[in-house]
Amino acid sequence: MKSGNRPQAPRRRRSSAVRAVACATAVGLLVVGCGRIPTSGPVYHYNEPDSQASSTAPAFNPSGPEKGASPNEILSGFLQAGTGVENDYSVAREYLTTELAGTWKPEDRTLVRSNDVSIDAKDGNQPATAEVNVSTSIDGRGIATSYRNPDKQKITAKFQQVNGQWRISEIPNGTIVSRQEFEQLFRSFTLYFYDPTFSYAVPDIRWFANRSTAATSVVRVLLQGPAPYLEGSVVSAIPAGTNLMRQSVPVSNSSAEVGLSGEGVTDANQLTLERMNTQLEQTLKSTSSVDSVRLSVDDKAVETGKVADYRPASVNPQVPSPQVGVLDGQLVTYADGQSRKVSGLESNDVEPSMPTMDTDRRLYAYTNSDRNHLGVRSTNGKSMDADMDENITAPSIDANKWVWAGGSEGSVYAWNTRGDSQDPQTVGADWLKGQHIQSFKVSRDASRALIVTGEGNDSRVWISGIKRDDQGAPESLGEPLRVGTTHNATQAAWISDTEVVTANTQDGSVQTVSLSGDTHDVNGLSDIEHITGGNGRESVYAQTGGDTYILTGTSWTRVDTKVRDLSYAE
Q: What are the Polar residues biased-composition ranges (predicted)?
């Protein structure tokens, strides 16, 4: 295929009779170290290292307004009082007129400044401005956006005399804090939504001030639905239009009382109520103060445990320890230093390269060494082969038995191994047009794709929601969230539902990156060709031109094996 032309659908080379493939399950944003910020599109999603998160926020004791303070001092004092998060920002409200103090909403927006605020306030009869260089902005839903270069914003305030003292009569909702204050006052919370089958919980990272009302904040935004990049890819057990009964979620003895109302929840059947309770419990456990939920609807307590075969959605499912690889031109499984040939597969048309398998170890997919052929084999005799009109990535198998691959010219392909058609489906992803896809991996919850695009110093790592039709067939990839790596990655793999490992095959650098914001550098590995991850950082393998290594802490230990192209199930 000529560069610059729209990729054509790959031509089918050969296929055998299709039989149903046994069902398997699989599952499925990112953390950056202190001072480092992840990305969303041209900016980053931010999160502090988990090791720094605490259950109790440090105490800040800002001062209220002094008698006779000038408009400049009032505005400056108000901005500093944004650190007083307890008692509903009561100190900050002292700087406002009575009317504004009753309507001002501090949690509508939090601006994290990169340096001191520049205030221009003359006399109280004229508006004052505060110029802020914003490095991160948290909106009212707790969604964080951070910028590579500070975003200069101006805040306008108006003043009024109250009993002879200047007070602020108009100012936008929200607070302004320094980076250090933000990292002390705020922490990440994980909301959970679900794949359409309610088999897997899909994490959605949000940021709130770590105070006693955090449970209320978390439930409030949970009712509003997922972050934009997950819209259309995940579902909520809680019906649209559901509201909190009393606008608060009290927590007592590690149990949260959640009272809901709304037409959809009033008419909910028992299965929906069970799923709602699970969703609330899984989400509220991220507050560190909640272990259980007492759910009520229209002030009537909801009894759970009444659906006999109910199974809660799986959070961060694990993959089996055996890996698939290639030895002497054949597919083998590898575990504990031992390899075993995969039996029951139809012979290969090409010598396998970069294989993958499902969690049941019944379905296998691979390319050839030139990356222009896809082969699929199943232990039940299923066989698919397709020659491609462009180079493709190593394949990825999702929980629904779809085989995926990204094309070198920006196309995304998916093969339905359970259907009658042998032809691949081209998955819509307009934002990928013209981009070189180097790595493509579907999350274990089958709801998100981890994609590396570009080359050299222009490479980027993305996560994009997968939108499917009512039968589970992939239709498109949503607008992406950029992952906040601090190096130029060429490959990436999932190691949990909220963490990935990335590698640069050009300079040998490797990082683990968490969706809540934390990056960890490990020792470089020269001549690195391939990386794969299982369950956490303890199960990361890398391949060089001649050897295979396992990650031990931040260093690499050579593995004595001749098996090449090792890959964990997906």
A: 49-58
Q: How far apart are CA 69 and CA 49, in angstroms?
A: 40
Beta-bridge mates of residue 259: 296
User: Residues 6 or more apart from 272 whose CB is under 8 A from it?
Assistant: 237, 239
| CATH match for 39-184 among 3.10.450, 3.60.70, 3.40.50, 1.10.760 | 3.10.450
Q: Give CATH superfamily name and number for 11-28+316-568.
A: TolB, C-terminal domain (2.120.10.30)
pLDDT tens per residue across span 488-538: 999 999 999 999 999 999 999 999 999 877 889 999 999 999 999 999 999
- The CATH code belonging to domain 188-301 is 3.30.300
- How would residue 58 be classed by pLDDT, with cut points 50, 70 and 90? low
Q: Strands 43-44, 39-40: parallel, antiparallel or unpaired by DSSP?
A: antiparallel
**Structure tokens belonging to residue 222:** 């949970």
- Token pair for 486: 């601090």
What the block records as the tokens of 380 is 């039940």
Model confidence, pTM: 0.87
Neighbours of 42 (CB within 10 A): 10
Q: What local confidence, expressed as pLDDT, does residue 328 receive?
A: 96
Q: How far is CA 19 from CA 12, 168, 337, 473, in A?
A: 18, 72, 34, 18
Structure tokens at 525: 């590995």
Which pair of structure tokens corresponds to residue 392?
């493709």
Q: How far apart are CA 125 and CA 161, in angstroms?
A: 10
Rounded Cα gap, residues 35 and 433, in angstroms: 33
257 exposed, middle or buried (CB, 10 Å; 0-12, 13-18, 19+)? middle
